[in-house]
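sanity check this fold:
=====
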Amino acid sequence: MFRRTSIALATAAVAATATVAAPGTANAEIGIPVPCVESHDLAGANFNVKLCGVSDVDQDRIGLDGLGLYYCGPASLLNVMYYFNRHDGAPLGYGTDKVADLDPKDPADFAKTTSFLYRIGVDAQYKPPGTSTKNLRHAFDVAATPAVQANWAVKSGYVDSKSTDNFSGELAARLSDGPVQMVIGFYKTQYGGVERESGHLVTVTSAKGLFGDDELTITYADPSLASDKNIGDFFKTQSAYRSETATLKKTLIHEYLRPEDDPATVVDESTKLGTWRWVNRWKLSGVDYNSNLTPMVEGFNWFDMDKQGYQGH
């Protein structure tokens, strides 16, 4: 993988591309998709990063708690694991249960995919309403144990939009190493400002924009969105893969922070007066979530895997 230790190094990197061959016959034939071409262009003032072959695993499925309602974290993380295995050959999994043997698109592997999501949830300490970014990074480390034993270097971290000046550039640089797990918060209007109502995790596959700019375009796989959503027994099958295209724009918000209840006390602390803060988030537009809540990107988990001594893609 291309190691990005800083934005300065990222902007000085040489652009690189890799073509993934299309199955079947010639591209000119009707119905044959144009081959996906990876881009790792971080040179100059602009960036254009695009990954190919990232899976789009459904979270809505029978066999998971609440039919997978809160399994966006494990589903988006499995997409990351799938890419590193298929693209770089990284050994990931649990004993005899290997990502290399998993095909989420194959109906015969539906139960196996569900089992992987359940296991990721266990390692990430899943409980409604979901999983934390920190615990998901731990779950990745558990699945990467075979890679570490085979002399792979495994790294991960979290980038928060409220404390990162060049958030768009950092996203592009980290994405060049592998898919990132992006956190979307959904905010409601409250007391003249906004308050976070819920959160969601998706897998970013491309980013295009200008270093240091306040706007960029991304594509991502959302485990909760599918063409057959809420149609028939949709939770018994893997949906067709799809990607979402969205614009992110840096936005200063006045956020109300409600106190959390301490279960160890008799008093319900959540009913007490909260606090306010001004914080930068990235407003997401272009994807319809059928909600009156405003989606804001809060940050992302990044991952990097390198076979020791390997110099590039």
Summary: Residues 1-29 have pLDDT under 50 and may be disordered.
